[in-house]
């Protein structure tokens, strides 16, 4: 499913993304080592076991990236000019290996672009939830989206 042009969106519209993902140990290990994050809570089973969580925490960069990634096919695929920013990133609950995550997106705001008449700005409110319906990550994504060709 391709993304949608600026004119095809309405404020308040909500999409539940079909892709669900069970987080693996490999997911966490790869993102942690690729980003040179040496936090023992992500890499050291003994240190993580001694923490208040009692086990390894999944790196938040993975959770954030997955949240935005699962939204792309339903929102911006093929129509995105640029992501202009990510705001209000929150991670209210931890993610652990074995958690199954799913996401949804609500259109928070629409506005015309002042500098690009062929585009508009869409602010997407993304959420990621675990298998217990707990919110594990949220953010606002500001995207510059193409308008329909004239």
How would you describe this protein?
By secondary structure, the chain is an alpha+beta fold. The chain has 4 helices and 5 strands, in the order E-H-H-H-H-E-E-E-E. It has a 5-stranded antiparallel β-sheet with strand order 1-3-4-5-2, with helices on one face. A hairpin with a 6-residue loop joins strand 3 and strand 4. The longest helix is centred in the middle third of the chain and has 16 residues, at 60-75. It is elongated.
Looking at the structure, the CATH topology is Thiol Ester Dehydrase, Chain A
Query: Roughly how much helix do the residues carry, as a percent range?
Result: 10-25%
Shape: elongated
The CATH level-2 architecture is identified as Roll
Average pLDDT score: 96
Calculate the terminal CA-CA distance, rounded to whole Å: 22 Å
Read across the widest sheet, the strand sequence of neighbours is 1-3-4-5-2
Structural class: alpha+beta
C-alpha Rg, in Å?
17 Å
Task: Describe, in short, the structure shown.
The chain has 150 residues and is an alpha+beta fold. The chain is 23% helix and 37% strand.
What labels describe this entry?
150 residues; alpha+beta; five-stranded antiparallel sheet; 4 helices; 5 strands; 23% helix
């Amino acid at each position: 499913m391709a993304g949608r042009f600026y004119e095809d969106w309405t404020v308040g519209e909500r999409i539940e993304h079909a892709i669900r993902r069970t987080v693996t140990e490999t997911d966490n290990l790869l993102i942690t080592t690729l980003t040179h994050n040496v936090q023992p809570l992500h890499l050291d089973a003994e240190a993580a076991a001694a923490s208040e969580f009692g086990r390894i925490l999944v790196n938040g960069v993975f959770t954030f990236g997955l949240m935005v990634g699962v939204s792309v096919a339903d929102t911006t695929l093929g129509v995105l000019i640029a992501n202009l920013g990510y705001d209000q990133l929150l991670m209210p609950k931890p993610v652990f290996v074995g958690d199954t995550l799913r996401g949804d997106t609500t259109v928070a705001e629409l506005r015309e672009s002042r500098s690009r008449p062929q585009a508009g700005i869409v602010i997407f409110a993304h959420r990621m939830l675990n298998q217990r319906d707990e919110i594990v990550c949220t953010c606002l994504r500001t995207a510059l989206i193409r308008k329909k060709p004239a």
